[in-house]
Amino acid sequence: MLNKRLKKRSKMYKARGLWGVTCILFLGIITGLGLTGDRAHAEIIKSDNNDVLTGTVNNNETEKTSFSGENEASTDSQSPTTNEMASEKLETEVNQPANNTQDVNTTGSSTYEQVEPANPQESQPSLAPSINSPKETKVVKDDEVKYSQPTVAVERQENGYWYLYNPQTNTKYTGFQTLKDGRVVYYNGQGQMQYGEQNIDHHWYLFDQWTGALKNGFQYIPKYQKTVYYNQDGQMQYGWQQVKGQWYYLENGSGALTRGQKKIAGHWYNFDRNNGQMSTGFTYLPDDKKTVYYAANGWMVYGEKKIAGYWYLFDQGSGALRTGFQKLPDGRTVYYNSQGQMQYGEQKIGSGWTWYLFDDGSGAMKTGFQTLADGRKVYYAPNGQMQYGEQRIGGYWYLFDSANGAMKTGFQYIPKYQKTVYYNANGQMQYGWQQVSGHWYYLENRSGAMVRGQKQINGHWYNFDQNNGQMSTGFTYLPDDKKTVYYAA
Fold first, then answer.
1. Are residues 475 and 415 in the same domain?
2. What DSSP designation does 342 have?
3. Span of the secretion signal (predicted)?
4. What is the per-residue pLDDT across 80-110, written as a single tens digit (0 to 9) for each?
5. How far apart are the first and last CA of the chain?
6. In this structure, are 132 and 195 located in the same domain?
């Protein structure tokens, strides 16, 4: 009986021995296949943890296997996807740089939509800074992709840190990695996922504080109260940057988005206070309470400039748009309306609505006698204002219509002095003997008043009609003297 039991146990041990050998050979084949499989294109770190290979999972760990091109269901409900990581609010301990923050705006570049500034200029060169463009100018390529996705990878949380494993080699990935859900993340030298601002190879990057996803575009950093810009590779940018057709300037030291006025390379620029876009065209600067003009390359304009068919004048020192009467370097006095546009022809200006005349070609203010398009001959004083009524000009008295300023000629009655005077074809008041239309008249030497009735001139008596002032000839009845007299021709 004992011998039968010993023989039976001996057969069982042999069977177990063969089974063990078979298991070892099988595991060897599987391991060999894993070592010859696809490798991730990143640095990996050996791990003493064999849980991935054996299939066992510690109680304080979660993992997820990711295979490129396969649609496998997740084996871990706590894998670090965007929504789940946000809900778990993991508190990661990451060594941050001196100016590091994990409190960032996650809205991305959508906050900064393209804005078309009003640009009334007549013709513009290509959008600047094409003129004297800084060397650091870069144009963002939106479709550029840099970081590849590992073929085989397992995400695992260990002791509060997320790692990415290669399950075939039991090693940790480091550096930039693209996860199956599309996130680009970064693992440090220990294989730990990083968050917030990180300085990597002399470039600043920003990673979401919950998901670790690499940020790009415009991002607001509350800790430093600044908006910065990360290109498509996630690197913080500096200097001139063109994004979606708009120019921005990022401070060379901090990368902060410039807003308001800034002098760059000897030229003044302005950047929108809301979105930071470089200003072009007419721009109002509320701090200085002035309107200025920026050319297509962003430079503030000074002096005279023709824009959209109108001439404008900008102060040589401040660039402020000038309005009203201005004396130009070439000696012209011109006038710019409230919009800053140079005016031409007849213009009614000022609270008194005074008429002025400006040259149709140069805009120069006219003075002196001028003949208008409707035929009126008028007079503009040295200050350019049209004159009315009696005016003494160049030693002569003239009379201008009180309504339209037209110069008067011929006999004119002056109500103020209750007299009739005579202005020749040049508009000048006349004195003494005047023959008009075949009739003789006599105008007082001092006042120019037309004489009526009897008057002794140079020792001779004359008579002038009481109604029209014409000199009498022939038989004439004098009612005041009640006599009839005779005047020679």
1. yes
2. B
3. none
4. 343 333 333 323 333 333 333 333 333 333 3
5. 189
6. yes
